[in-house]
Design a protein that fits this description.
Elements (H helix, E strand, L loop, with lengths): L1 H9 L12 H16 L19 E5 L28 H13 L4 E5 L9 H9 L8 E6 L4 H10 L4 E5 L5 H8 L4 H14 L4 E8 L8 H6 L7 E6 L16 H11 L4 E2 L8 E5 L6 E5 L12 E4 L4 E3 L8 E2 H6 L4 H13 L7 H4 L7 H5 L58 E13 L1 H8 L10 H5 L1 H13 L3 H14 L1 H4 L8 E16 L5 E18 L4 H23 L4 E11 L6 E2 L12
Parallel strand pairs: 1-2, 1-10, 2-3, 3-4, 4-5, 5-6, 6-9
Antiparallel strand pairs: 7-8, 8-9, 10-11, 11-12, 13-15, 13-16, 14-15, 16-17
Helix pairs in contact: 1-2, 5-7, 16-19, 17-19
Length: about 625
Amino acid sequence: MRRLSSQLSATSVHPGSPTSVPISVRRAALQERLAEIESLHPELSSALTDSFGRSHNYLRISLTERCNLRCFYCMPSDGVELSPKATLLSDDEVVRLARLFVRNGVTKIRLTGGEPTVRKGIVELIARLNALRRDGLQSIGMTTNGLVLQRYLPALIDNGLTHLNISLDTLDPFTFEIMTRRRGHEAVLRSIDAALDSGRLASVKLNVVVIRGLNDREVLDFVEMTRDRPVSIRFIEFMPFTGNKWDKSKMIPSMDMLDRIRDRHPTVTKASDELNDTARSYRIPGYRGSIGFISSMSDHFCGDCNRLRLTADGQIKVCLFDAKEMSLRDQMRSGASDDELLRTIGKAVGGKKEKHAALSSSAICGNSRLASMIPRVRKPFANRLFQAHSSASPSRAIRAFTTTRRAERAKLTHVDESGRPSMVDVSSKAFTSRSATAHGRIFLPFHAFDLVSFAATDPNTISSEEHSSSKDLVKAKAKARAKGDVLTVAQLAAIMACKRTSDLIPLCHPLPITHVSVSLVPEAKDIYDPDGRASRSRYSVLCTASVRCSGKTGVEMEALTAVSVGLLTVWDMLKAVAGREMVMGDICVSHKSGGMSEDFERDVDHDDSHSLH
């Protein structure tokens, strides 16, 4: 363009000069300008069109194999074997490939993982991708679990992030821990709040994988979230992946979910879908948000698929369910030109099948134990999702990286080389002074808390249901009191259990315990609403056990056993009045000293937000 501009300048007509610009030069300048304009919305290269005529203008880039959750439907509990760092794409390689795809017709990029927010330099990388807008890129999206998103979100938006999908399969923190094998539910909720409150994203969507008997009872709670917030809830059918124990009976077809929603909301109507969108969208009149269904199993959308995938180690995948890959990384590192890379991309796209064959290629086996693992939740959690969180409530520290290379994982000390259980040989260790402290809580309704705290009953805290059955409640309280002083009995049970730990836990060593101290303290805590006013109270009993010995191995198990049995005894003593409402949790080692490993302390002064009461 600069060359033609200078040529036009050299042949320009000066006032009074009969010389005119040659038509051929003017035509060439015009054609180059049109080409420059069209490059902002480039025509799709034939390399990105498959044999079935599907055009692929959407690229999903996996930035990392790491993830800070362990969702059972996509990852084993101990993580996945990671590729060596040197085999993963560098930022420069990601940008080069993204530029190649954009210049050949890709207009939408979505960053995925693993978990993309755990990649170092994610903000700077998005800024570099955002510079591809001059080549025709129109949007940059991200799919994240939201665990650490809140701290990065403003910078991500400032540097070009336009669309955000957050994965959240449950509104119940207990089910969250079962599905993800990690804590962090509150952190995800804060990230969702921050995304919606920013007002700067083109769309915020929640991805919900629905599994029968696990979280399907929450479908209507998720729908209710769209009443007042501009969020799109997308229900995803449970899909099979290698090793996730997929069971067809656990998969709920999208139409079944829609029928449930129609029973509650008969006016739900079909909404217009975006071009090539995987979700079929619906709206409820008067609601600000929308709902959608991704029917990968019951009604696949392969005929409209416009997606290509680039893995973290530089392989191009044309279908999520297709194991075949072609390495663009190896070609780049061997000095391949962009034209050579484009030919490889075209070969991969040309081999894309008409539809995926997930059902025939996956190992399908039963998983009937899932339903029995889930605690019954008596109160809906949808009304908690977008509440502001009091600054007085300390948040838990969340590890950003939990996946480790298989070679770096610690060996299980209680299993021998043949995989059989074996007690650790401590005969060579020296006797040292060792100590440990453990904590745990049991959350109670007020009428049970009243029994252990000897507080006067507050009539305002008793529900109408309790008033109507006051005689039964009085009888139940009398029965509970007849068992004796709840906390004293629990304290004695905890001390006895501590001394019998090696009888209860098969591979624990018998230890000469020199001291056991157990306390059970009733706690009442006010829960504050977004305006800073106390909206309700939460009641619990904190059990603390401290153990000391002079021995060859630590006493952490003794402290944990004492706390666990102490809380179980409280449960047993109060089950007549609150057997369906009590919840135990937050059991952990808070202090450990002695031995060869480092001493440590954990702050457990605050209680977690796991109570349902």
